[in-house]
Write a structure and sequence with these properties.
Blueprint: H1 2-21, H2 23-40, H3 46-49, H4 51-73, H5 76-120
Helix pairs in contact: 1-4, 2-4, 4-5
Length: about 120
């Protein structure tokens, strides 16, 4: 039974190597994102959306910390927790990207319509 635990710990360590090796970058991006959110608070519209980069930064920082813990201990649940945080990060980034594209298309359409109406009128 102990051999199975050692095998599982070795597997967790092996699977977590790519994320573990980039933990420094994850922490850096997390800190930069938190700082960006704090700076965003000082703008008028930023007050409404500043929580998003702060949340993303916390997720990335916690992901780096939990993957480090998973690599060192070989704990499967900790590794799954780190992947869960990474999953949430990508979901949020995907939604924000889609919203950005939609806003850009609407703004471009309104600009083109405004130019068309000013040309006609």
């Amino acid at each position: 039974m102990e051999n199975q635990g050692n095998d599982q710990a070795a597997l967790v360590r092996e699977l977590s190597i790519p994320i573990y090796q980039s933990k420094g970058w994850l922490k850096l991006l997390g800190i930069v994102s938190i700082v960006q959110g704090i700076i965003t608070v000082f703008t008028i519209i930023g007050i409404l959306i500043a929580w998003l980069p702060i949340w993303i930064g916390v997720l990335l920082y916690k992901c780096a910390s939990t993957v480090e813990r998973a690599y060192l201990t070989g704990d499967k649940l900790t590794y799954m927790e780190s992947l869960g945080k990474l999953k949430i990060y990508f979901i949020i980034q995907g939604i924000m990207t889609l919203i950005g594209i939609i806003v850009a298309v609407i703004a471009l359409s309104m600009g083109l319509l405004g130019a068309l109406f000013s040309y006609i009128g």
